């Protein structure tokens, strides 16, 4: 009972000492002995009110910090066009299959069923039940589609004439076989790359294929000539110029009601979706297409935030099974393939295939595939691939378009600077289009995703409020720690030593003295009595025993 009373008394004494010496405003009045109880209550309630207000404002700051920590701002520095690749440009003939090749295929054959699937047409023959695989579909696709060397009559990039077959690669899209320029090499695009991914052989002996992603960019020690290429310069002459041949006499089926081409300017690391997002260009026209890059990067600090908070993914996230790096477009491709395989028990010919033996959707599956794709594109449907978040690093391109009809006989003897015979009677002006893709400036301003309130800003705002209301600082925390732990421990240890010394003194007094000690004590008592007597008489005396 006595020990508990002593501990309680020591606690109250320690609290009072803290209140008297703390740097927090207002608490010292609670320990002041000269003020009344009413005054103590006033200062106590005032301190509680101050703590409540500061807690309210700090909770607002924390809510803003946790709910919307990311802000998108313009970059402080301009980005050069040579820091990013020139866009990948995919061009498709609106004709899905050449008439001369389709006519040689019997309508009752399995290959014709695949042609109907390519043309997105339904069969009137209910007996068409052929189950096609990618191997079969690849063979018939490469047979009937117009090859790139027939569609591309002339190519130049950076004011230099190029071999179209070297700089353009055949690519599979939702609009059939198309030709793409400056796209990422398939071995850097697909997770498990094999020669089966190639539709037609392609070799570019002059330019070395390298890996590139929007977040990592170009690496160091690049070869002299590499692909994806950077910009050749600004203006029409320094961009990409192509002359296209529509071959309108070979039209068999098309997803539109016109003759010409579709093109899409896109990120080199993404596969294009031509059918929904491609830009239409009629044959017999010349087009000028200025390109404006849009680059979004991210600060390294946002990586620590949860994906649901930052609402974007880095290239090494996303857990894609078919593509090597994450992008929203690649994620949607895989999402569509999974849903089609699950609901329609097949996969459309242009979508990724986890297994080469998976059935390619045929004409009898058109009803199922159309409905499913419409639901996926709808933002209000549960089947929409909403889990495919944007990339934290994204590169896209905005384009303009101006066209003018071409008129025969206006090129003069020089053919407008193009090779002789490019506009002959075989192709004809009505089947030919000239397209120019180019930058209008060599610098642009990118945007950056960064923390709107980082840990440093949060501590600064919180510390400012606490300092304004209470005079709180980091040293206030040290004081609380000291008075709550270290000081009670030191006081308890000191008291314990004092008790031990007192007990030893008591034991020493109770011990019987020996003869020498008795004489010494007697002398001391005698001298003490003499000293007290002289002092009472007012006579100064120096105690010799103290020398």
From TrEMBL:
The chain crosses the membrane at residues 41-62, 465-486. The keyword DNA-binding does not apply. GO terms for molecular function: ligand-gated sodium channel activity. Keywords: Ion channel, Ion transport, Membrane, Sodium, Sodium channel, Sodium transport, Transmembrane, Transmembrane helix, Transport. InterPro entries: ENaC, ENaC_CS. It is found in: Membrane. PROSITE patterns: ASC. This is Pickpocket protein 28-like. It comes from Glossina fuscipes.
């Amino acid at each position: 009972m006595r020990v508990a009373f002593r501990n309680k008394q020591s606690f109250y004494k320690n609290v009072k000492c803290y209140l008297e010496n703390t740097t927090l405003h207002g608490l010292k009045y609670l320990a002041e002995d000269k003020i009344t109880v009413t005054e103590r209550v006033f200062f106590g309630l005032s301190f509680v009110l101050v703590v409540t207000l500061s807690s309210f404002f700090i909770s607002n700051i924390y809510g803003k910090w946790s709910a919307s920590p990311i802000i998108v701002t313009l970059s402080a520095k301009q980005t050069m066009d040579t820091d990013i690749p020139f866009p990948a440009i995919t061009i498709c003939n609106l004709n899905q299959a050449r008439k001369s090749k389709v006519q040689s295929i019997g309508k009752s054959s399995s290959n014709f069923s695949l042609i109907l699937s390519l043309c997105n047409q339904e069969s009137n023959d209910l007996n068409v039940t052929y189950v096609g695989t990618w191997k079969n579909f690849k063979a018939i696709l490469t047979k009937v589609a117009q090859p790139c060397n027939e569609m591309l009559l002339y190519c130049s990039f950076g004011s230099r004439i190029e071999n179209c077959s070297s700089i353009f690669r055949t690519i599979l899209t939702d609009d059939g076989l198309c030709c793409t320029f400056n796209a990422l090499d398939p071995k850097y695009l697909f997770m498990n790359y094999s020669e089966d991914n190639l539709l037609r052989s392609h070799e570019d002996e002059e330019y070395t294929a390298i890996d590139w992603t929007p977040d990592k960019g170009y690496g160091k020690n690049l070869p002299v000539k590499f692909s994806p290429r950077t910009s050749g310069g600004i203006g029409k002459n320094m961009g990409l110029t192509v002359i296209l041949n529509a071959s309108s006499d070979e039209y068999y089926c098309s997803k539109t009601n016109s003759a010409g081409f579709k093109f899409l300017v896109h990120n080199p690391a993404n596969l294009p979706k031509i059918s929904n997002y491609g830009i239409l260009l009629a044959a017999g026209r010349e087009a000028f297409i200025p390109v404006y890059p849009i680059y979004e990067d991210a600060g390294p600090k946002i990586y620590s935030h949860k994906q649901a908070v930052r609402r974007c993914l880095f290239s090494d996230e996303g857990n894609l099974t078919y593509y090597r790096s994450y992008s929203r477009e690649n994620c949607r491709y895989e999402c569509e393939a999974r849903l089609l395989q699950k609901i329609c028990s097949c996969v459309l010919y242009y979508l990724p295939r986890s297994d080469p033996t998976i059935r390619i959707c045929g004409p009898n599956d058109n009803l199922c595939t159309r409905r499913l794709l419409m639901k996926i594109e709808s933002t209000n449907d549960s089947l929409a691939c909403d889990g495919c978040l944007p990339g934290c690093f994204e590169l896209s391109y905005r384009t303009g378009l101006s066209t003018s009809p071409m008129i025969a006989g206006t090129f003069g003897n020089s053919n407008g600077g193009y090779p002789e015979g490019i506009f002959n009677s075989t192709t004809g002006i009505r089947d030919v289009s000239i397209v120019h893709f180019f930058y209008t400036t060599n610098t642009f301003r990118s945007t950056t995703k960064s923390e709107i309130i980082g840990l440093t800003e949060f501590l600064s705002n919180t510390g400012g409020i606490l300092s304004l209301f209470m005079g709180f600082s980091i040293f206030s925390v040290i004081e609380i720690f000291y008075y709550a732990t270290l000081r009670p421990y030191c006081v308890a240890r000191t008291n314990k030593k004092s008790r031990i010394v007192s007990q030893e003194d008591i034991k020493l007094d109770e011990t019987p003295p020996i003869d020498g000690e008795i004489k010494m004590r007697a002398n001391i008592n005698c001298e003490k009595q003499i000293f007290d007597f002289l002092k009472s008489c007012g006579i100064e005396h120096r105690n010799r025993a103290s020398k």
